[in-house]
Design goal:
By secondary structure, the protein is an alpha+beta fold. Strands 1-3-2-8-5-7-6-4 form an eight-stranded antiparallel beta barrel, surrounded by four helices. α2 runs antiparallel to α4. The longest helix has 17 residues. The N terminus is likely disordered. Pfam families: NIPSNAP.
């Protein structure tokens, strides 16, 4: 009994003195910037697009008095028709809460938006961050935009981040398209990344895409990232006259 007790004491002492090792469950580079970007997609009733946009153009200044509008587009191609897509910027979640409260109390904005509610079928919201290796860019002139949405395998950027970054940078570094921003979803479809591109026109976008498909440097980078891809879809976006991003 004494031998057993002595052995148990030594074992407990060894366990107590053993260095404490903390396991990291991080899924990628830490997001130090608290800025959040709210993606809003409105599905409109058929034939109501022009009326909706005219109402919005007339009154959008009431809404932008509360927070920053990054861009506002109509969807030309990709998925369901009669859609508008817009991005709003907030310093952090507390800022968004303050803005939403202020907007709810803004009677002039609320009254101005009532007609648009009758023109809308459905609304969707996602909350996203810019990825740590990307900053929001602004093109030097007007053009069209492409939003490409990638559904990645579970595991986060720790699993697919480096390969995805190389695929994006291959297009950017070789000048096939201008990158506006890369966004990682915080609320909405998880493991989703949105890439916003700018091109002068749909034809210049198509020409650049065809050239990139024949470039072995791009093909090699994309082939690596495809191993982590579940699905993808894209939309061609036309900026509205009141969109900050033209």
């Amino acid at each position: 009994m004494l031998v057993l007790r002595s052995g148990l004491t030594r074992a407990l002492a060894a366990r107590t003195l053993a260095p404490q090792v903390c396991s990291s469950f991080a899924t990628g580079p830490r997001q130090y910037d608290g800025t959040v970007y709210e993606f809003r997609t409105y599905y409109l009733k058929p034939s109501k697009m022009n009326e909706f946009l005219e109402n919005t153009k007339k009154n959008i200044h009431l809404r932008t008095a509360h927070s920053e509008l990054v861009g506002y587009w109509s969807v030309e191609f990709g998925g369901r028709m009669n859609k508008v897509f817009h991005i709003w910027k907030y310093d952090n979640f507390a800022h968004r809460t303050e803005v939403r409260k202020a907007v709810a109390k803004d009677k002039e904005w609320q009254q101005s938006f009532i007609p648009n509610l009758g023109l809308t079928d459905k609304q969707e919201i996602e909350i996203t961050y810019l990825v740590p290796w990307c900053k929001l860019e602004k093109p030097a002139k007007e053009g069209v935009y492409e939003l490409v949405s990638f559904q990645m395998k579970p595991g986060g950027p720790a699993l697919w981040g480096d390969a995805f970054k190389r695929a994006i940078n291959a297009h950017v570094d070789l000048g096939y398209s201008k990158l506006i921003g890369v966004f990682h979803t915080e609320y909405g479809e998880l493991n989703r990344v949105h890439v916003l591109w700018w091109n002068e026109s749909p034809d210049s976008r198509a020409a650049g895409r065809h050239r990139s498909h024949e470039d072995p440097r791009v093909v090699a980078a994309v082939r690596e990232s495809v191993n982590y891809l579940v699905s993808q879809q894209n939309m061609l976006l036309i900026p509205t006259s009141f969109s900050p991003l033209k």
